[in-house]
Design a protein that fits this description.
Order of helices and strands: HHHHHHEEHHHHHH
Strand order of the largest sheet: 1-2
Number of helices: 12
Number of strands: 2
Strand content: under 5%
Length: 310
C-alpha cells in the first residue's frame, strides 16, 4: 500500500471513530426525549437539521471543487443530467433502510437502557458480511460464521431473562440491526459512484419529508417540553446526521464495508459509557458476560482468512 493510501485509510478510520463517538453519546439524548416525542417525529426533525447541515457542506464542496479547477487551469466540469437522474433515483433506496433502522432503534430505546441499546445495535456488524453473501454474493469467512454463533450466546446472556423471554425493547433494537447493516452495504457501493455529500443530502432530505409527514399524521408530541427536546435534537441532528453521515460517506470511499462496520461498532462502547456516566445505568454480571461475548464476536467477524496456497 502506498504512503498516500495508508494516510488516506488512517484519516478514514479516524472519521469513522469520530462518528461512532458522536452516535454513541447521542444515545443519551435519544433516551431522554423518548417520553416527549414520537420516533418518526424525532427522526424527521433530526433529518431536517441534518439535511440543512449537509446542504452547507455541499455548497462548500462545490466551492472548493471550482477553486481547485481554477488553480489547476482546468475548465469547470458541471454534473450532467444523467448524474442527477441516477442520484435522485438511487439515494432513496438507502433512505428506506436508513429510516427503518433508525426509527426502530429510537422506538426500542424507550423500553431498554442506553448501554444495552448500544451493544445490541453493534450486532449489525455480523449482518454486514452475511448480507454480502446473500445479496452481493461475496464470500463470507469462517470467522464471520463463528462470530454469528458467538453473538447468539452473547444475546442469550444480555437479553434473555428467566423463563426464556426477551424484553420488548431488546427485540425491537435487535431487529433494527438488519436494515442498518443493509444501509452500510448500500452506502459503500454508491459513494464510489456519487459525490458523498450529494448522495447523503438527497438521502436525508427524502427521509426528512417522509418521517416528518408520518409523525404529523400518526404521532403526538408534547411541545410544551421543547426545552427538553431541543438540545438532544440539535446534537443528534446537526452532529449525528449532518456531520456523521458526511464523515461516513467520505470514509467509506477509502475503506471496505467490513472495516467500516467494525469501527462504527465502537458506537456501542461509547453508548454504554455515556449511559453509565450520564444516566447512572449499570450492567448485571450476567449482562456483562453477554457484552463480552458480543465484543469478541464483533472482532472475530472481521478477521481476514489466510489465503490458501495453490
Amino acid at each position: 500500500m502506498k504512503k498516500e493510501e495508508k494516510s488516506g485509510a488512517l484519516l478514514a478510520n479516524l472519521m469513522l471513530i469520530t462518528a461512532a463517538l458522536i452516535w454513541g453519546s447521542g444515545s443519551v439524548f435519544q433516551k431522554i426525549v423518548c417520553p416527549h416525542i414520537g420516533s418518526f417525529t424525532f427522526y424527521g426533525l433530526r433529518c431536517i437539521l441534518g439535511a440543512v447541515t449537509l446542504a452547507i457542506l455541499v455548497l462548500v464542496n462545490e466551492k472548493n471543487k471550482r477553486k481547485k479547477e481554477q488553480e489547476l487551469g482546468l475548465p469547470h466540469s458541471p454534473y450532467g443530467k444523467e448524474y442527477f437522474r441516477r442520484l435522485l433515483t438511487t439515494a432513496p433506496l438507502c433512505t428506506f433502510a436508513n429510516i427503518t433502522g433508525n426509527v426502530l432503534t429510537q422506538f426500542g430505546i424507550r423500553f431498554t437502557t442506553v448501554g444495552k441499546t448500544g451493544f445490541l445495535t453493534a450486532i449489525y456488524i455480523i449482518f454486514v458480511p452475511l448480507l454480502s453473501l446473500l445479496i452481493f454474493k461475496k464470500h463470507v469467512s469462517r470467522f464471520a460464521w463463528i462470530g454469528t454463533a458467538l453473538t447468539v450466546f452473547g444475546l442469550y446472556f444480555l437479553c434473555i431473562k428467566d423463563g426464556f423471554t426477551i424484553e420488548k425493547g431488546d427485540l425491537i433494537v435487535l431487529v433494527s440491526t438488519i436494515p442498518i447493516a443493509l444501509h452500510i452495504q448500500l452506502v459503500s457501493k454508491y459513494v464510489r459512484i456519487f459525490t458523498p455529500v450529494h448522495f447523503t443530502f438527497v438521502e436525508f432530505s427524502t427521509a426528512a419529508v417522509f418521517c416528518t409527514t408520518m409523525g404529523l399524521l400518526f404521532e403526538e408530541t408534547n411541545w410544551q417540553m421543547a426545552s427538553t427536546i431541543i438540545p438532544g435534537l440539535l446534537y443528534c441532528g446537526i452532529l449525528g446526521i449532518g456531520i456523521c453521515y458526511a464523515l461516513q460517506g467520505v470514509a467509506q470511499r477509502r475503506t471496505n464495508p467490513t472495516v467500516a462496520a467494525l469501527l462504527m461498532s465502537l458506537e456501542s462502547v461509547f453508548a454504554a459509557l455515556s449511559g453509565v456516566i450520564f444516566l447512572n445505568e449499570s450492567f448485571s454480571g450476567r449482562e456483562l458476560i453477554g457484552v463480552f461475548l458480543i465484543c469478541c464476536a464483533v472482532v472475530l467477524a472481521q478477521l481476514p482468512e489466510k489465503k490458501k496456497i495453490a
